[in-house]
């Protein structure tokens, strides 16, 4: 589904991603872990072409995406993204938030977009909130709306950047439950999270990043129970 070859990205003098190689198979959940500043968000943003790499290649479904030539609006339709801070449109209802991109970007008929939106709200347990505005929702509810909104474009891959980091602890579980359900339905997902329980339970592949490099990749068992690299061990001893 995704193949990244030797990706490099700098901000000025700061070399943030260093020769990143990453393969994501269809249906896999890949969890990216690593300390703050290690480049996890930048990598996700490159996968969605919110950032453009300096060098290297990104293939989606086998197609090389040249960000300087490709129609990125179309490419992004296949790659949904959920952010730490929800980014809902505050002046739109929940339903309007969800149908916005399908109607205006994908040109889906409004009735059809509404029908899918209601199905997605049902799925994330918020069908009764369709006509509410974001301010009236809890953080966990906002994030579930943000997930429904990303799914409304019917993406092939979903990227999650610390989707539960801004939530009160008691609201984390409801968002992780939705993500877990999505994973079980076979969605291809790349998830940046500090929720090690989620990584252990749901990930097919765990990737540990440090200082812009992928240090180690493996199954949750390999990474959490017998990490090969000292740096992985150190990081895990701080977070587990
Ligand atoms: P992580 O998500 O792992 O915390 P980031 O990808 O956000 O790491 O950041 C990696 C490094 O790149 C950090 O040193 C950060 O300060 C820097 N950085 C991120 N975005 C920008 C930007 N737009 N301009 C300059 N530096 C940035
Ligand atoms: Mg980040």
In spatial order, strands of the major sheet run: 6-7-8-3-9-10
The CATH superfamily is P-loop containing nucleotide triphosphate hydrolases
Measured as a percent range, the helix fraction is: 25-40%
Q: Would you state the CATH class?
A: Alpha Beta
How many strand segments? Answer: 10
What is the overall shape?
A: globular
Keywords: ATP-binding, Cell membrane, Membrane, Nucleotide-binding, Transport
Membrane topology: Peripheral membrane protein
Organism: Paenactinomyces guangxiensis
GO molecular function: ABC-type amino acid transporter activity; ATP binding; ATP hydrolysis activity
Gist of the model:
Residues 2-236 form the ABC transporter domain. This protein has 240 residues and is of the alpha/beta class.
Describe this protein's structure.
With 240 residues, the chain is an alpha/beta fold. It has one domain (2-237): Rossmann fold (3-Layer(aba) Sandwich), CATH 3.40.50.300. Helix content is 38%, strand content 25%. The protein has helices spanning 40-47, 72-77, 94-104, 110-123, 139-151, 169-184, 196-202, 220-225, 230-239, and strands at residues 2-11, 14-24, 29-33, 55-60, 63-64, 79-82, 157-161, 188-192, 205-210, 213-218. The protein has a six-stranded mixed beta sheet with strand order 6-7-8-3-9-10, sandwiched between helices. A four-stranded antiparallel beta sheet has the order 2-1-4-5, covered by helices on one side. Helix 3 runs parallel beside helix 5 and helix 5 packs parallel to helix 6. The longest helix is centred in the C-terminal third of the chain and has 16 residues, at 169-184. The two termini are 31 Å apart. The structure holds adenosine-5'-diphosphate (ADP) and magnesium ion (MG). Adenosine-5'-diphosphate (ADP) is lined by residues 11, 14, 16, 34, 36-42.
């Amino acid at each position: 589904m995704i193949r990244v070859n030797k990706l490099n990205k700098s901000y000025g003098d700061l070399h943030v991603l260093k020769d990143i190689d990453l393969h994501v198979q269809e249906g896999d959940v890949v969890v990216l872990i690593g300390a703050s500043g290690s480049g996890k968000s930048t990598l996700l943003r490159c996968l969605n072409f919110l950032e453009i790499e300096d060098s290297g290649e990104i293939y989606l479904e086998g197609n090389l995406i040249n960000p300087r030539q490709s129609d990125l609006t179309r490419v992004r339709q296949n790659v949904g993204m959920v952010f730490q801070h929800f980014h809902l449109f505050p002046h739109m209802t929940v339903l309007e938030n969800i149908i916005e991109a399908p109607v205006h970007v994908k040109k889906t008929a409004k009735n059809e977009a509404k029908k899918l939106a209601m199905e997605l709200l049902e799925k994330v347990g918020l069908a009764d909130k369709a006509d509410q505005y974001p301010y009236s929702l809890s953080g966990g509810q906002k994030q579930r709306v943000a997930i429904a909104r990303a799914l409304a474009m019917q993406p092939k891959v979903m990227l999650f950047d610390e989707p539960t980091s801004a939530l009160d602890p008691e609201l984390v579980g409801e968002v992780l439950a939705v993500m877990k359900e999505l994973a079980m339905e076979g969605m291809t997902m790349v998830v940046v999270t500090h929720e090690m329980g989620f990584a252990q339970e749901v990930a097919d592949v765990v990737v540990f990043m440090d200082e812009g490099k992928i240090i180690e990749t493996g199954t949750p068992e390999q990474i959490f129970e017998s990490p090969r690299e000292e740096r992985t061990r150190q990081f895990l001893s701080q977070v587990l």
